[in-house]
Structure formats: C-alpha cells, structure tokens
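2 proteins. here.
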Amino acid sequence: MGKKEEISQAKSLLENDFFKEEIKKIRQLYLEQIANTSHEQIEEREDLYRMVRAVEKVISHFESLAMDIKIEEKKWRIF
C-alpha cells in the first residue's frame, strides 16, 4: 500500500462514525472500570489506565497518518 493510500485509509477511518463511536465506547468502558475500582486495586487501575492510553495512542497514530496529507500538499507548494 502506497503512502497516499495509507493517508486516505487513515482519514476515512477517523471520519467513520461507527469507528468513532466504538472507540468512544471502549474508552468510556475503561474509564468506568477505573472509577469502579476500590482504593486497594492500584494495579488494576494502572492496567486500565494503560489501556486508555493505548487506545489514545492508536487514535494518535491514525491522526498522524491523516495529517501527512497536509505535509505532502505543502511540499508541492514549496516547489
């Protein structure tokens, strides 16, 4: 898959309402689980927090790919 196709796929994924809603649900589920842990469940909370961060990193990865189109467009304007 070429760079332009990756950019297009990432942008399409980020604009997909079903994908956005499911990511939101997953993140909310982890946050609710964190809120429902007891004071002593430190390790469980930390694991859940890492899961929230992992979801955010996945989204950041696709956002970064989608932003590459702007970089590509600016490259051609310079020349």
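next one coming up
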Amino acid sequence: MLEQEENGNPKVERSRKRLRWFGIHLLVYFAAMAVLIGINISLDAAEPWFILPLVAWGAPLAIHAAYAMGLLDTLLGLK
C-alpha cells in the first residue's frame, strides 16, 4: 500500500533517481580507483600518483552525494 502512494509522488521519484545515479557514480569511482591503484603499484610504487585523481574526483563525488541527499535543494531552488 505504501508503494502505491509513493509511486505517484514526484519528490519520491526524484529522490530515487538521484540515489540511483549517485550509486552508479560511486561504483564507477571505486572501479576506476582500483584500476589506477593497481597501475600505480605495478609501475612505480615509490610515487603514489593515484592520490591526485582520488582527491580530484572525490570532491565532485562529495558534491554529488550532497545533491543526492537533497542538501542542495534550497540552494538550487528545487524545494
């Protein structure tokens, strides 16, 4: 019964869509970081250059997390 009530609610649908895209973004982030760490270790373990993309991609990921949780709705005028 609760499922039927939530399906028509645009806020719930928007929230689910945001969380789905954030989950995809997070999955791609961890997969790419695993590959980059593997490449870094296999080529030159003395210089940890993988930290630059880790941080550089982590910052937009944090903003995406805030957007997915609805923390930026007021700022963007979506409420």
